[in-house]
Design brief:
By secondary structure, the protein is of the alpha/beta class. It has one domain: Rossmann fold (3-Layer(aba) Sandwich), CATH 3.40.50. It contains seven helices and nine strands; from the N terminus they run βαβαβαβββαβαβααβ. The chain is globular and about 60 Å long.
Length: 272
């Protein structure tokens, strides 16, 4: 049974590979004998993260890739196939994760003030990027008769954000920060993409699933953490490495009978 979790010689592409969780997924993949291909727009950081993994004696490569560019995805796909002969797994993890920022007198995260430029940028990376990577890399998998796509959604792909978590005392409604609309749209959209692809390539040996993580400890303000943990039955947020084994399960043969599934791993938040 343990062998089913082994990724020996499996070539795994991770978008957003230099990010807070993406680099952790890459490390876990390498530890289980997979070839981690970290893709990100930050060339310096993505190469540093790959080198950190290589220092442990594992195989990892860092690539600067703009996943909103079809040509760039086609190029890295071609390069990897030439180098390794295949791509086995795609993890669509990249997202802008828009911050809640403001200018004097107007909170820019609020729906009324949310710009079309920001909408386009966030959706382009988080959803269109996942579509393009799936379209190009997924076709390669379908042509060879086997592959796995894992879309990283969120508990906010299942429920709406509770905007009370972000409220600040003594601040007018117009200046209250909120979780931006694009986060919800992208994370819900990834679940739709998951189900579409799972049925589209069901006869081609390509499995497609989604993971919906909850909040992760990352030095958030104490007040925010207190309010959020009160909404979680387990009474805490996730530690940064707690999703690694779920990712491993979903991309390995241990989940060979799973496709079109949405795995929610949020400490129980969405069941309340």
């Amino acid at each position: 049974m343990i062998m089913k979790f082994n990724l020996k010689n499996q070539v795994v592409v991770i978008t957003g590979g230099a990010g807070f969780l993406g680099c952790r997924y890459a490390k876990t993949i390498a530890e289980h004998e997979g070839v981690s291909i970290l893709c990100d727009t930050d060339e310096k950081k993505v190469k540093e993260k790959a080198k950190e993994i290589e220092k442990t004696g594992k195989v990892a490569l860092g690539y600067k890739v703009d996943i909103t560019s079809e040509k760039e995805i086609e190029k890295i796909t071609s390069d990897l196939i030439k180098r390794f002969g295949k791509i086995d797994v795609l993890i669509n993890n990249a997202a802008n994760n828009p911050k809640m920022d403001k200018q004097t007198g107007k909170e820019l995260s609020r729906l009324e003030n949310f710009s079309i430029e920001r909408w386009d940028a966030d959706v382009s990376v988080g959803l269109t990027g996942a579509f393009l990577c799936s379209k190009i890399i997924g076709k390669h998998m379908a042509d060879k008769g086997k592959g796995v796509i894992l879309n990283i959604s969120s508990d906010l792909g299942i429920i709406a954000p509770d905007q009370r978590l972000y409220q600040k005392k003594g601040v007018s409604t117009e200046q209250q920060p909120v979780k931006p609309v694009t986060y919800s749209v992208v994370k819900h959209g990834l679940i739709g993409l998951t189900r579409y692809l799972a049925t589209y390539w069901c006869d081609k040996g390509v499995r497609v699933n989604a993971l919906c993580p909850g909040g992760v400890y990352d030095n958030q303000p104490e007040d925010f953490v207190k309010k959020l943990t009160q909404l979680i039955p387990l009474g805490r947020m996730a530690d940064p490495d707690e999703y690694n084994d779920a990712v491993l399960f979903l991309i390995s043969d241990a989940s060979s009978y799973m496709t079109g599934s949405v795995i929610v791993m949020d400490g129980g938040r969405t069941c309340w």
